[in-house]
Amino acid sequence: MSILFAPINLGNMRIENRFIHSATYEVMASETGEVSDKLVKRYQNLAKGEVGLIIPGYMYVHPLGRSYKFQTGIHNDEMIPGLKKLVETVHQEGGKIAFQLAHAGRQTTKAMIGQTPIGPSSRGRDPVNFVKPMEMTADQIQDVIQAFGVAAKRAVEAGADGIQLHAAHGYLINQFISPFFNQRKDEWGGSDANRFRFLKELISEVRNALPQGMPVLVKLNTHDYTPQEGVTPSLAVTYAGWLADLKIDGLEISCGSAVYSYMNMCRGDVPVKELVNSLPFWKKPLGKLMMKSMVGKYDLKEGYNLEAAKMIKPVLGEIPLFVVGGLRKVAQMTEALEQQYADCISMCRPFIREPFIVKKIKEGKTDSVACVSCNRCLAAVPSNMTVRCYNKGFPTP
Ligand SMILES: Cc1cc2nc3c(=O)[nH]c(=O)nc-3n(C[C@H](O)[C@H](O)[C@H](O)COP(=O)(O)O)c2cc1C
C-alpha cells in the first residue's frame, strides 16, 4: 500500500492517511462569526472524501483579531454550539478535525474591528490596506495570550481533535516572530529568542487549556517575503528546533503573507481582473498596474515549500512535518514521504476543486489533482465571495 495511506499519530490523535486539509478561509460564517450550515456541509464532504485531518479556516480568538466579515469566530462562548455541530458532522463521517486559532494583529482594518489594528510594533503602512498599527502594550499582549487559552478551551468543549496555532502568513504570531514586523526592545523583541517568546507563551497557555495528549500543531512560515528580512529559511530552522524542544505535535510549513506577499503564499496565476474587481474604485487604477506587473512572476513551482521541508525535517526529530504549497502530482507527494522530506501532504486549493480527491487517489483513479492554481478562489476572498472553484469551465457545485 502507498505510504500516502499509512496512518500516523499526532499526539494522541491517529489519522488514517497522510492527507491534511490545510486551513482555508471559507467566507461562510455569519457576520457574527457563527458556523453556518453551508460551512458544515463543506467539511462533511471533505470528511466523506476521507481526508486524514481537516483544518477548517482560521478562527479569530479575540474580536480585535478578526480579519474578515465572514470569518469563523472562537472568541466567545456563543460560538460553541456551531463549532460543536461542525465537529460532530466530521466525526460522523469518520473524519478528524483540528481548529486553527488565529489573531490578525495588524493584518485587518479599522472598518473590520472598530479601532486601529494592533501589532508588536507600529512600523510602517502596509501596501494593501495602508494600516499603521498601534504597538501593543504589555497588558494587551497578556490579554491576547489568555484569549488563545480560552479559545483552546472552547475547541475542547466543541469536541475538536486538536488545535493549530497560525504562526504563518503575516498574522499576529508571525508578526511577533518576524524581525521585520517586530521592532520591540522589551522582552518581546530585540533578539530571536525574545521574538519567539510570544509563540512559546502561547504554546504553554494552550497546553494548559487542553487535555493531556491533545495535539498542538503550529503553522510556520519558512519565508515571509517581506520588504526587509522577516522569517527566512535559516531563522525558520532555528524556530523549528525550538518548537521541537517544546514538543509540539506537528509542524506545517508554508510561506508568504496575506498582505505583503500573498502570491508567494499561493503561487500560480495572478487573477488580475478578479483582484482588481475587489478593490474600491479609488484603488483600482494603481491596483491594476501593480497586479499586471506581477503577472508571470509567481508561476506555480510544484511543491514550492519542499526545499524548505528538507531543511526543517532534520531538526524536528520525531515530530511530524506537514508540507503545503503547490503539491499537485501523486508521484511527487509519494516521493516527498518516501524520501522523508516530510510526513504529511497538506493541500488547500486542490480540495476546493475536488473534495473527494483523496478517495480518488486511494482508488488509483488519478495521478494528479485537477486544480490549475488559477487563484480565482483566493481572489474571491476580498470580494466576500464564498470559497469555491471559480475556474472558467468548472461547473458550479
Ligand atoms: C481561499 C484561500 C483561503 C485560505 N485560508 C487560509 C487560512 O484560513 N489559514 C491558513 O493558514 N492558510 C490559508 N490559506 C493558505 C493555504 O492553507 C495554503 O497554505 C496555500 O493555499 C498553499 O497551498 P496549496 O497550493 O495547496 O493551495 C488560504 C488559501 C486560499 C486559496
Automatic annotation (TrEMBL):
Keywords carried by this UniProt record: Flavoprotein, Oxidoreductase
Domain NADH:flavin oxidoreductase/NADH oxidase N-terminal: start-end pairs: 4-251
One Pfam family it belongs to: Oxidored_FMN
Domain of life: Bacteria
Gene Ontology MF terms in the entry: FMN binding; oxidoreductase activity
Protein's name in the database: NADH:flavin oxidoreductase
